[in-house]
Amino acid sequence: MEIENLKKAIQRLRQIMKEERYEKEENDEQEQIRTKWKAIRVKMRKRKTRRRKILQR
Asked: In a 10 Å sphere around its CB, with 0-12 CB exposed, 13-18 middle and 19+ buried, how is residue 19 labelled?
């Protein structure tokens, strides 16, 4: 009886750990996308200011 309960508890823990790992991977992907777009925005801003400076001369 105790062994069965332990086995079930271990299975539950493994399932929870798997789910957490998937959530973490998804979060990492979202974070990568966010940082990628941040970098693109910064590049665009730099280009804009460069154009302005050239036009002011």
From this structure: exposed
